[in-house]
Write a structure and sequence with these properties.
Length: 356
């Protein structure tokens, strides 16, 4: 029982780390219990045993007609030799079932390990789902086909990136090509390689961010602007431009459930903690707990009532509640404020045009 409980432990670190370790634990437990293992064979690999077990546990096919069950007639006499043989059969069946149970346990153990691996993959390495399109975003319209990278062009871009592995532009164009063809995992892989090679190339960050924004790839754009603000000095003339675009990208990316899997929160907070708090509130509202999202936004507005992104999100929630009466003056205030970032002005204007 001790071995079984450990083998089926919920946490991976609490279980046996390999099948040989599990086998040895069973053998040790049997030795301690004084169980005779002479008839138990543990040497066959599970790949040979599993098909046999699957066949053994599969339900037998039903006959066309099922005759009524009839108990065998009792007999008064029995051959002693036959009686002895019949007494040994349960023992063989016992050991056979022990073997079956062990193989099933091995399968469960292996399955738990695989599930842990898949869980880690889904959390850390899985391709991100398609970027969502905010119907109120100025860039919501899809990129025209003649501006997208066609599938047949990907092979040439891959060859270029392979022939010039240190060329950031090659990896970036390949990333954009993957985005255009909805191959998101390789897209983010190539984007990361491009960023690692870009250094402090301002033009690269402008082109990369714009290219991703045009594709409504807001997660990717947020990654680019986060890196730009991290590596570029604040004295860079384009720094305020990157800062505003970072706000826009993170705001729009927060509509996606996995945004904070794509970009570590600590990296984002190093750029602008208040904006990260807003993005977390928006993501919580749309994907986790609506009431908690409202609470987080109210806390932020209490701290900074003039934050334009927070005011835009508040109006957004009012529209969700069909409270157009209160949403309208809030949006008009954003649209008429000369200090409102241009992207917020555009979104506010579109909300006003679409509201009844």
């Amino acid at each position: 029982e001790r071995v079984l409980l450990k083998a089926l432990a919920k946490e991976r670190d609490d279980r046996y780390q390999s099948v040989p370790e599990l086998v040895q634990a069973f053998k040790s437990a049997w030795d301690e219990a004084g169980v005779d293992m002479a008839e138990v064979t543990m040497t066959k690999p599970i790949t040979e045993v599993a098909p046999k077990i699957a066949a053994a546990v599969a339900p037998a096919p039903m006959p066309a007609t099922v005759p009524p069950t009839q108990a065998p007639a009792p007999t008064d006499t029995a051959d002693p030799a036959e009686t002895g043989a019949s007494q040994t059969k349960p023992k063989k069946k016992f050991w056979r079932w022990i073997g079956i149970v062990l193989v099933v346990l091995f399968a469960c153990f292996s399955g738990l390990v695989v599930l842990d691996i898949l869980k880690g993959y889904s959390q850390n390495d899985a391709p991100l789902v398609a970027e969502s399109v905010d119907p109120f975003s100025p860039e919501a319209a899809p990129l025209p086909d003649d501006e997208r990278i066609a599938p047949e062009e990907l092979e040439d871009l891959q060859a270029w990136a392979e022939s010039e592995p240190e060329n950031a532009d090659a990896h970036l164009l390949l990333a954009l090509g993957f985005f255009d063809n909805k191959n998101f995992k390789p897209a983010y892989t190539e984007l990361q390689q491009a960023l690692d090679l870009a250094g402090d190339n301002v033009d690269f960050y402008i082109y990369a961010g714009d290219g991703l924004a045009q594709r409504n790839a807001w997660q990717g754009a947020a990654i680019v602007y986060t890196r730009a603000l991290d590596v570029l000095p604040e004295s860079t003339p384009e720094y305020p431009q990157f800062f505003e675009r970072f706000h826009e990208a993170l705001y729009k990316a927060s509509r996606m459930p996995e945004v904070f899997n794509a970009i570590p929160v600590d990296e984002l907070k190093a750029v602008d903690e208040q904006m990260v708090r807003l993005a977390q509130a928006r993501q919580t509202f749309y994907h986790k707990d609506e009431e908690r999202g409202r609470e987080l936004l109210d806390e932020l507005l209490t701290f900074d009532p003039g934050m334009p992104e927070a005011r835009l999100f508040k109006a957004e929630i009012l529209i969700q509640d069909r409270n157009f009466k209160d949403a309208r003056p809030m949006l008009e205030g954003l649209a008429n404020d000369e200090y409102t970032p241009y992207w917020i002005y555009e979104v506010a204007t579109q909300y006003l045009e679409k509201m009844p």
